[in-house]
Design a protein that fits this description.
Keywords: Carboxypeptidase, Cell membrane, Cell shape, Cell wall biogenesis/degradation, Hydrolase, Membrane, Peptidoglycan synthesis, Protease, Signal, Transmembrane, Transmembrane helix. One of its GO terms (biological process) is cell wall organization. Helix 6 packs parallel to helix 11 and helix 14 runs parallel beside helix 20. The strands form five sheets. Strands 4, 5, 6, 7, 11 and 15 form a six-stranded mixed sheet that branches. The termini are far apart. The chain is an alpha+beta fold. 34% of the residues lie in helices and 16% in strands.
Length: 612
């Protein structure tokens, strides 16, 4: 009867077998020795460069360092005897309550007793105070380590983390709720550009004789490559400002430069500090983030697709113009027997007035005319005509980068969705559906879903009158530029003249009588082209949206704002967008709008108190 070998015996036997199968001096994985007629047997070697690798830094567009690998100090508190917290707080210059808040944030759960004691990160100045008074505090252990450090408290979904540095966080979300794991796991640029940030060691592959002299190579050598710095497109100051405006909200804001596709700010709210997910003393904070029902760990701008609401009327109008369903001068009656219209406004005699007042019945009739158009060749088969027309609508709308991955440089980007005839055939269980059963498409609801990046890119397309560069977060890697695919210009299937026809109505939205007139920046000489939206929500308050670009005739920023359960886009989302536009273009906010900032700041403080 065979008995199981102890694991140490098994391991020793395996190593002896491995050694017996290898020629003397031959490395495992290398080819067998080569017999040379002049030099005799040549043994393949694999030599690794000894130069230490340094992981590259992450900097913003203005060269401010946001992430770097740095030495840090870690203080380990004793479990016994009891700690004189008042005396230690005084030494470190902390309030006594701060010490206990730090300890609470470090514990994985309330009442936990870590085997090695509670560990706290200290600044260099704080560590110096401990070192200077070490004789009075023999029970404290201070050590220096090299860790990936964040110099900013903003931009967490963009910066992300290297998976090797975030194992405790990844293990936590796997254990807590598996269904959330892939939704909230977002490594940001730290993961997407991990190979370039890490660099790689150099490898030489010589063939050596019995005297150790090289004679050719058995494989191509690999050059040593130090980890490269990456410069983000993000403006850290604008990012921080936008995060403050969205504090206390759920939603997102994406701002980009339409001329280049560079993302200037990308906020997913609620926000959190990026260092929380990797810091050794934030286990308790990580657990609170995972358990928070508002899901702050979800990158809403890239991985959450929602119905866009009335802002999608811009796409529908562009497609209808292209396919000849309407002209810029086409008018329709505001017939509320078709669909409700929440705005009181003049008769929409043309497209500009319809956009200015966001007339739902107007765009209902635009979409109906597009879908129900029956050419003479199909006069006896209206079902086939509707299928063909919806397929054409979907194809032209898809050319905006919708219903597909844009290809941004962040992990887990979502594609959004545009319905097709086959989708409705299956959903309605018949191919004889009518326009009345899909009319919600006319106001950007129903089955349409877009991400925040897609909505901002939609604005960039209109700003450019028909083309775009793929939105991206890194403008240069090392001494080079962005990845080559971000320099490729993409064109839609819509003619530039049809985009031009949208702009007067978008300007009118921000003017007297328009749905976002109170958010115009005319007093500082900035003309915004925009569109408001309100997304109906059966499970609570409606969602507020706004998209736009500025200056309208020479666009330098395109923006999309989506605030969950915030009500009307005109009163909730448009002011946020206007402040970010003004901050970017002018660097400061006019005094008459300072009260907007204060109102949003107070809302953020109230949210923090509620979730502390």
């Amino acid at each position: 009867m065979l008995t199981a070998l102890p694991w140490k015996t098994f391991l020793l036997a395996f190593m002896l077998l491995l050694n017996a199968c290898s020629s003397p001096g031959q490395e495992v994985g290398a080819p067998p020795p080569v017999q040379d007629s002049t030099f005799g047997p040549l043994t393949p070697r694999r030599i690794v460069s000894t130069e230490p690798l340094r992981r590259g830094r992450v900097l913003d567009r203005n060269d401010s360092v946001l992430v770097a690998t740095r030495p840090v100090y870690i203080l380990t508190l004793p479990q016994r005897p009891p700690l004189d917290s008042l005396k230690l707080s005084s030494l470190l210059g902390w309030r006594d309550s701060l010490l206990w808040h730090r300890i609470e944030a470090a514990l994985p759960y309330e009442g936990a007793r870590p085997k090695g004691g509670v560990k706290l990160l200290l600044t260099n100045a704080e560590a110096q105070k401990i070192q200077d008074n070490q004789k009075d505090w023999p029970m404290l252990k201070l050590e220096q380590r090299t860790l990936r450090s964040y110099t900013t408290s903003t931009g967490a979904p963009v910066l992300g983390y290297a998976y090797s540095n975030a194992q405790s966080f990844l293990n936590l979300i796997q254990r807590y709720r598996r269904g959330r794991f892939y939704r909230v796991r977002n490594g940001g640029v730290e993961t997407y550009y991990n190979g370039l940030l890490n660099g790689h060691r150099g490898y030489a592959h010589p063939l050596v004789d019995t005297l150790g002299q090289p004679h050719g190579t058995w494989a191509a050598d690999t050059a040593f490559q130090q980890g490269q710095d990456i410069h983000l497109t993000i403006d850290a100051n604008l990012q921080a400002y936008a995060e403050k405006l969205l504090a206390g909200r759920k939603g997102y804001l994406v701002a980009l430069d339409p001329r280049t596709g560079e993302v200037l700010a990308a906020v997913s709210a609620p926000t959190f500090a990026p260092g929380v997910l990797t810091a050794p003393d934030r286990a308790g904070t990580r657990r609170k983030l995972v358990e928070n029902e508002d899901m702050p760990l979800l990158n809403r701008s890239a991985t959450l697709a929602n119905p866009p609401g009335s802002v999608f009327k811009l796409v529908n109008a562009a497609v209808a113009l292209q396919l000849g369903a309407i002209q810029p001068t086409t008018g329709f009656r505001c017939d509320q027997s078709l669909i409700n219209c929440v705005h009181h406004h003049p008769v929409p005699r043309n497209l500009t007035i319809a956009l200015q007042y966001s007339c739902n019945p107007y765009f209902y009739q635009v979409m109906r005319k597009l879908i129900e158009h029956v050419p003479d060749s199909l006069v006896a088969d209206t079902t086939t005509a509707r299928h063909r027309n919806l397929a054409a609508w979907q194809r032209y709308a898809k050319s905006f980068g919708l219903d597909t991955l844009l290809g941004v440089d962040l992990p887990r980007e979502q594609a959004g969705f545009l319905p097709t005839p086959a989708f409705y055939d299956k959903a309605r269980r018949t191919r004889y559906w009518k326009f009345r059963s899909i009319y919600s498409l006319s106001v950007g609801q129903g089955e349409i879903n877009l991400t925040g990046l897609q909505m901002a890119n939609m604005m960039a397309i209109i700003a450019n009158r028909g083309w775009y560069y793929t939105p991206h977060f890194v403008r240069s890697v090392g001494d080079g530029g962005p990845l080559p695919r971000f320099l490729e210009k993409h064109h839609t299937l819509i003619d530039s003249a049809n985009f031009e026809a949208l702009v007067p109505g978008m300007k009118a939205v921000m003017q007297r009588g328009g749905t976002a007139a109170t958010s115009n920046l005319a007093d500082v000489g900035i003309t915004i082209a925009g569109k408001t939206g309100t997304v109906q929500n059966d499970e609570g308050d409606d969602h507020a949206t706004f998209v736009g670009f500025a200056p309208a005739d020479n666009p330098k920023i395109a923006i999309a704002v989506y605030l969950e359960n915030a009500g009307f886009g005109a009163t909730a989302a448009a002011p946020v967008a206007a402040l970010v536009i003004e901050k970017h273009l002018r660097g400061s906010i006019a005094p008459k709008r300072k009260h907007w900032e204060r109102r949003m700041k107070y809302r953020g403080l109230a949210y923090e108190r509620e979730h502390r």
